[in-house]
Amino acid sequence: MDSINLKDSAFLRACRCEPVEWTPVWFMRQAGRSLPEYRALRKEGSILDAIKKPDVSTEITLQPIRRYGVDAAILFSDIVVPVHAVGCGVEIEPGIGPVAADPFRSSDDLKRLRSLNPEVDTPYVLETIKGCIQELQVPLIGFAGAPWTVATYMVAGRGTTDQAPAHSLKNENPELFDNLINLLVEGTIEYLSHQINAGAEVIKIFDSWAGSLKGNDFDKYALEPCKKIISALKSKYPQTPIIAFPRQAGDRYIDFAKQTGADCLALDDSVSADWIAQNVQADGCVQGNLASSHMVSGGKELIKETKKIVKALSNGPHIFNLGHGITPVSYTHLRAHETREDRGVRGGGG
Ligand code: CP3
Fold first, then answer.
1. Which residues contact 192 (CB under 8 A, 6 or more apart)?
2. Which residue in 268, 249, 265, 246 sits closest to 257, CA to CA?
3. Is 29 a catalytic residue?
4. Does the CB atom of residue 207 touch ligand 1 within 6 A?
5. Whole-number Å distance between alpha carbons of 167 and 258
6. In the prediction, which pLDDT does 159 show?
7. Which atom of ligand 1 is closest in space to residue 247's alpha carbon?
8. Torsion sign (Cα): 141, 193, 324, 245
9. Distance of alpha carbon 46 from alpha carbon 51, whole angstroms
10. Virtual CA dihedral for 39, 291, 25, 338, nearest 10 degrees?
11. Which residue, among 194, 201, 193, has the nearest Cα to 12 in the 3D structure?
12. Which of 92, 128, 154, 267 to mutate to test the pocket of ligand 1 (most atoms within 8 A of CB)?
């Protein structure tokens, strides 16, 4: 809706490190299986089919806004959508995640990765963004997976706990791996530029597996690619805030905040809010970092932890969020808890 000036929204003000009237809040994976209305709409088909239907994706993006009144919406899509779209064969299997029938292993595989042209390859993503911003009265976050995280799925063929196949390829054939990362950097710049042109007000880069990179590898495969993407986007869209999420980066969160040019750093719950306030917040806005498990257990602990985080980060720019995504069961558990409370059964606050 054009009448609303989103530039003054709490969310965008926080991203710009300006004073806010309240701590803006949204939840990673706020659109998804934790919502009954999502499950009813999605039913059994593949998530990629839903993503390819702009009317369905728009509705799913809006569902958590209606239900929770959060301060930002996140585009309903997935980090593997662009590589799926350029024909590298990555699908998403229910309960498993990204799966590649023909994983990326050799220089021949580079040839089947054509350059991404978002208008031709992912028009449905751009249409969803346009549909969402017609309806939304809060900013829309567009996103992409960071090159390293997307590469881990392409190389492994399916989710692993330690990303070992991607680590092996980068160690055994660094030239090939660097070419893959560079291609992903270029594709991501193109993809995110089109998302901004379509109307996304904020961009988030998910490097969910950054924490598995150590020492120089972290610089080379997490920090540098994100820095390149951010600097290319900033040169074209200096006003669009960028949130970076190098999950489980530990001490290296500090370098990410200082060196990548991100406006906001999202942090997981392996670091404490006090540590964030001391080490990262001086370099820009921070986002996080309630453990998702609290959304499942609920009760007094959930309230206590939430207040602790908000207080610890109250002296600087902060966007409240989880350390990682809402789990598929969270909502069901919270409702069950509320129902017990409604009946006067003591269940630990809420
Ligand atoms: O609300 C939101 O956050 C927006 C939607 C969103 C999805 N995926 C939808 C989705 C976002 C931002 C993502 C990003 C994503 N996808 C990441 C980065 C964030 C993170 O969680 O670390 C990663 C690593 C992926 C890859 C991926 N896609 C995984 C590991 C899975 C889970 C597999 C499973 O079934 O448990 C997916 C599937 C997926 N993406 C679902 C959703 C809602 C669930 C499947 C479904 O609904 O059919």
1. 142, 144, 203, 205, 229, 233
2. 265
3. yes
4. no
5. 26
6. 77
7. 22
8. negative
9. 9
10. 60
11. 201
12. 92
Q: What number is the average pLDDT over the span 283-293?
A: 96
Rounded distance from Cα 97 to ligand 1 centre (Å)? 7
Does 283 qualify as catalytic in the annotation? no
pLDDT tens digit string along 50-76?
999 999 999 999 999 999 999 999 999
CB atoms within 10 A of CB 315: 10
Is residue 235 within 8 Å of 274, Cβ to Cβ? no
pLDDT exceeds cutoff 90 at 349? no
Structure tokens at 102: 């023909």
CA of 78 to the centre of ligand 1 (A): 6
**C-beta atoms surrounding 106 within 10 Å:** 11
Looking at ligand 1, which residue's alpha carbon is closest to its atom 37? 97
Coil/strand/helix, residue 202: strand
Query: Catalytic residue at 33?
Result: yes
Cα(155)–Cα(166) distance, integer angstroms: 6
Short-list 284, 278, 298, CA closest to 256: 284
What is the best residue among 27, 28, 78, 188 to mutate for testing ligand 1's pocket, by most ligand atoms within 8 Å of CB? 78
**What span, in angstroms and rounded, lies between the C-alpha atoms of 64 and 319?**
17
Are the CB atoms for 84 and 91 separated by under 8 Å? yes
Ligand 1 pocket test: which of 26, 29, 42 has the largest number of ligand atoms within 8 Å of its C-beta?
Answer: 29
Catalytic site residue from 38, 71, 78, 268? 78
Looking at residue 24, the DSSP 8-state letter turns out to be -
Using omega within 30 degrees of 0 as the cis cutoff, is the peptide bond preceding 289 cis? yes
Q: What 3-state class would DSSP assign to 112?
A: coil
Q: How far is the CA of 33 from the centre of ligand 1 (A)?
A: 10
Contact 233, 288 (CB under 8 A): no
Rounded distance, CA 142 to CA 287, Å?
16
